[in-house]
Write a structure and sequence with these properties.
196 residues; single chain; two-stranded antiparallel ribbon; alpha+beta; elongated; four-stranded antiparallel β-sheet
Length: 196
């Protein structure tokens, strides 16, 4: 059986040329020559070429935001009356609200990165999901790790082709995320060595 596979657009979001990981590097998966907005494998859309202004990169929604370090103080459940003050690594997106509200055991305190989900073409539910996490006070998970979770869904031939395109884009995004993981591990090692 032969499938007619239409060539993909392949355009990338403005700013894809700059080094480093990021979703801006994912290509458009719509057919070549399509009209309207571009769309990547995660259903994120963007319009045509970026403005000519030199400040255009700074105005993008996905441009890095300049903020100070996030510091949290939480009550420790394993040492009555004690608290733990932790500075989040720049990749951590957790607000640590549960730990601040209810307290935590030191080994359970965990930083979580942004979730990278691969939606199913059938119902949009994640079929794969990955994120970086780090429990810096755990004796088991001393270095940041990446968790990947599976899900299921039945697909027809067209959905299989779309899924294959999304998997290729997902693999590219995982490559980018592996750079973040490597940086997180280096930063964690530097922090541990600085604490000694």
């Amino acid at each position: 059986m032969q499938h007619n596979v239409q060539p993909l657009c392949g355009a990338r979001r403005p700013g894809w040329e700059r080094p480093g990981p990021g979703r801006r590097r994912l290509p458009c998966i719509l057919p070549a020559g399509h009209n309207g907005d571009h769309r990547d494998a995660f259903a994120q859309t963007w319009d045509g070429p970026s403005p000519a202004s030199g400040d255009a990169d700074l105005m993008r929604v996905d441009a890095p935001q300049v903020n100070g370090p996030r510091v949290h103080t939480v009550r420790l459940l394993d040492a009555p009356g004690a608290t733990l003050t932790v500075t989040c690594p720049d990749w951590c997106v957790s607000d640590h609200a549960d730990e601040k509200t209810h307290g935590t055991f030191a080994p359970d305190f965990t930083h979580h990165g942004e979730e990278l989900a691969l939606p199913s073409p059938t119902d949009g539910e994640p079929t794969l999901s990955a994120r970086i996490s780090h429990a810096p006070f755990s004796s088991i998970q001393r270095e940041p790790v990446m968790g990947v979770w599976p899900a299921n869904g039945d697909m027809g031939p067209d959905q299989v082709h779309e899924f294959a395109d999304r998997l290729r884009a997902y693999a590219d995004a995982l490559d980018c995320m592996s750079v973040d993981l490597d940086d997180a591990r280096l930063n964690a090692r530097d922090t541990h060595e600085g604490d000694r």
